[in-house]
Amino acid sequence: MTDTMKALAKMRPEVGLELIDAPIPVAGPEDVLIRVHRTAVCGTDIHIWNWDEWSQKNVPTPMITGHEFSGEIVAIGSDVNRPLKIGQRVSAEGHVIDLNSEAARAGHFHLDPHTRGIGVNRQGAFAEFVVAPAFNVIELPDDVSYEVAAMLDPFGNAVHTAQQFDLLGEDVLVTGAGPIGMMAAAVARHAGARTVVLTDINDFRLELAQKVAPGVRTVNTTKEDLRDVMKELGLKVGFDVALEMSGSPIAFKQCVDTLIMGGGMALLGIPSKPMETDWGAIILKALTIKGVYGREMFTTWRKMLGLLKAGLDLEPLITHRLSYADYREGFDAMRSGQSGKVILDWDKAA
Ligand code: ZN
After folding, report:
1. Are 281 and 257 in contact (CB under 8 A)?
2. What distance in angstroms lies between residue 231's CA and the mean position of ligand 1's atoms?
3. Which CATH architecture has domain 165-291?
4. Does pLDDT of 348 surpass 90?
């Protein structure tokens, strides 16, 4: 083992990422060092690539990006008291928290206000090696591939959003067919929803969604009227639950308009700027609105692995499998909107 590794980093406060040689990080006493095998590119990584307003405010440079990953443990810190082993196949929760915060001590690990993100404000996983706190490590079952394991982080967002309301036997609207929206639709199906409708304005993604979430009724809202689809599906009044994954003000309004009285709405999509909302409609419909952040540590993870075991298949979501050296192609695909998940392989260069 040499002491340098390949990594994809934001070296300067400007657009793009560079492939660099970086020192292999060293695990602290409570950390593990992980040899990364696969990573997935997230919308967050695109924000960082584009160096938008959010990134400029939140991402210090130089920074190795990437937080969706899988690999094997190659070193364990001296104070780690979890039964982890060298060679163990793992992924990790990318939100690193302060275990002494009030939220953490109350058992609400995902609500620690001082959360730091792997690949956002601490060195990330687009690299041959990454360090993570042992607390964050998720042991992988043998039948979960490294590729699928690299997508557990966003799958966790989907499951966490779907966890907010009871979906059993209910009519569920999912707005936004990005990877997390597709996964949320698949989860709603597995959770026993009566109908699941998934909306977007991107036909490529709606077609892909048919493979990721079979049995879901997809709707391109620029071509079809959601009201007509509701009629076709026998929805007399409206949806019971809406999962808003797009951040689009139009989609938000569609959720409010089509929910039943007393319906529930979980919000994961982040609007790009403050948006006008018809609060009167929300109040008079007695809607419950929940913001969703991250994943519950570690209830959501348990449910995710349970869903995979129960047959929910994430593989159809992968549209690109590339060597890390071809990262530009992967980022271009993500930015084009003509992709599902892009997987980067860190085992070998092309
Ligand atoms: Zn992500």
Report:
1. yes
2. 36
3. 3-Layer(aba) Sandwich (3.40)
4. no
